[in-house]
Automatic annotation (TrEMBL):
Species this protein is from: Equus caballus
Gene giving rise to this polypeptide: INPP5B
Top-level taxonomic group: Eukaryota
PANTHER family assigned to the protein according to its UniProt record, in alphabetical order: INOSITOL 5-PHOSPHATASE, TYPE II INOSITOL 1,4,5-TRISPHOSPHATE 5-PHOSPHATASE
Name by which UniProt lists this protein: phosphoinositide 5-phosphatase
CDD domains noted in UniProt: INPP5c_INPP5B, RhoGAP_OCRL1
Amino acid sequence: MLCEGDSRQSRLLGLVRYRLEHGGQEHALFLYTHRRMAITGDDVSLDQIVPVSRDFTLEEVSPDGELYILGSDVTVQLDTAELSLMFQLPFGSHTRMFLQEVARACPGSSHFDDLRPNGKGLFVDQSSWGQDKPEDLLPRQNKSKSEITDMVRSSTITVSDKAHILSMQKFGLRDTLVKSELVQREEDYTYIQNFRFFVGTYNVNGQSPKECLRPWLRHSVEAPDVYCVGFQELDLSKEAFFFQDTPKEEEWFKAVSDCLHPGAKYAKIKLIRLVGIMLLLYVKEEHAAYVSEVEAETVGTGIMGRMGNKGGVAIRFRFHNTSICVVNSHLAAHTEECERRNQDYKDICSRMQFCQVDPGLPPLTISKHDVILWLGDLNYRIEELDVEKVKKLIEEKAFQTLYAYDQLKTQVAAKAVFEGFTEGELTFQPTYKYDTGSDDWDTSEKCRAPAWCDRILWKGKNITQLSYQSHMALKTSDHKPVSSVFDIGVKVRNEELYRKTLEEIVRSLDKMENANIPSVSLSKREFCFQNVKYMQLQVESFTIHNGQVPCRFEFINKPDEQSYCKQWLNANPSRGFLLPDSTIEIELELFVNKSTATKLNSNEDKIEDILVLHLDRGKDYFLSVSGNYLPSCFGSPIHTLCYMKEPILDLPLETIRELTLRPLWTEDDGSQLENPMEIPKELWMMVDYLYRNAVQQEDLFQQPGLRSEFEHVRDCLDTGMIDTLSASNHSVAEALLLFLESLPEPVICYSAYHNCLECSGNYTASKQVISTLPTFHKNVFNYLMAFLQELLKNSAKNHLDENILASIFGSLLLRNPAGHQKLEMVEKKKAQEFIHQFLCNSP
């Protein structure tokens, strides 16, 4: 973002290198203007070129009157003899990498690998870190405001827990011990101080801000110390869903910023968004210096477990000495999808992981925080009551009677979700569903029953809820916003006691004999995984018990191998630190997916591996992993499945191996492989099921199914027991998409990929490309197109259209031969356009 006074103009920045004939090189920054969705070269225009010459400087700065907060956007000042420009760059590893590359390009730079960013200029010598003495870590209170600002601005060392620099690998084992002891003795040097937190959630139904948010954000007399503000359904457009792009992010960010409490000045810590799920975090400016270790992550739980129309976003940070995680989630809709909501919650908990400052430490999960604040449109409904009965109880303000039928209440009581969390009493009427612009309940054809969809829960110690309410004054959406105000006791450091504790720890370590060799005992060294199935996690665990010498452990690569284990295996954690006489549980997770299934089907790979557990300054321990994989149609080539007349699990392993390794273009040899099927029977089973049961199903291929039902569908296909198939339409539809994704050679072969992109928009040429595909692949393509056209005939009921189906199937049927690299937007668009032609034209 190019900043000129109050003006903000979006730019694309590129660092360009030009190799000179005599062997030297020159660099320049290219600045481009662009359309909002820059997809092709026609969408960008070169604005100006800034040579990286000897008078070129680029420094990180703080905008006038503002503190730079770790985790917020990075403001940099570019100066040359001719011009001066200021940019805001998004916080994250891409920006850090870009700035480092610019620094390397500056004339005279030679050793930038040892340089890191700091707050005053772009780089500082990393070797100076090792010079810090314990007294350099203290005291925070005696530092000037400018010093604090510089420390907050630093992208590596932050003021709230500066001792965490001890965790950096530069310091080695001794300093890891210091940090571990400080954590264990935290109560010796901290005290509890209350801070006021505002937590708010609002499903805005794809609307732009049309009214002032003060009734929601400013309803309390006292200015909050911290604001956590979450939105759902920020943008419901297809562009937001498929391309993650929306102008409404800026609109709602500005609407919130303009309506924060006037009794304080706030600094934005972080903004994170996944499609329509957005979370904002602000703190009072005077608290900014005590915020550190800011990380943000997203988890999509939509179709195929990835799409971001449902899921969660989270921001974690350390405030003084307390770790806090704020989660904003939008779970699956519809009354009958309670189990799906539970699964979404569990997926967010298991997949949301935050990197730590020390790359040697395992990622943090949501549960590994002192305080967790969970907000959002959780979508749990009121069941067992008809609409009129619900409305009557609301009119009588019999909220506790109504609450007895609330799905979230019953699921929490059953310990299915939010175990250990607390929610305040619901003293306000349900927040969904209203006619937009009014306080009237839904009068649409569907006439949705009112429900408390929008909720706020918490977990942790020293938390007192002061209010929990909805805000009926806001009428922009079919939901009402909800807020909760908390007093949260935060651990604050007493600097004098901290110094004393630190000195005691250092003196104690001085007496330690570091010459001792660490040794551990393992509870188990052999692991057998029985009957492993496609996309079905199996976990085996063991315990490491340490002796009397503190040690670091890590699973290390075997000679000539790229990773410490095979692709289908993972150790969690894979590295860590053990204090004397301590233990840690390690989980070995085995999960076969599209990347590994084919070789396991063909027996080219087996469930066999050796893990090497290495102790720093100690010996290595060897762990044996074995097991058996049950072959599946998932991960099997199309032509292989066409030759399998029997279910895959009824065939001998050698037959499966031969058929899987059979070349794609080989003609039938006339032996035992006579009369292959035109398409895989497993594909036919799924499509036939959907044709008979789901052609009018609303949100087909857009709403995920249940994991347990996918496993049932997979087992029915692999055993041929299709008559026992009993699953929701959404689960079978998702299984079909996963099947297509798992094909080692996509329906449109890799060799035809570029031809397809070139002729997208030319239907005649596109049909010609399809005609050149191998027979089985051509049959599958035509069969799928005929099925999708049948779905489109029922679009009035299922609400599908050509664009939705082309977007979903384009990336599955037409895949880049380069593999897992992220597709350029122009390629994604052309792939969709290619499929779109066949949906709009009769064969």
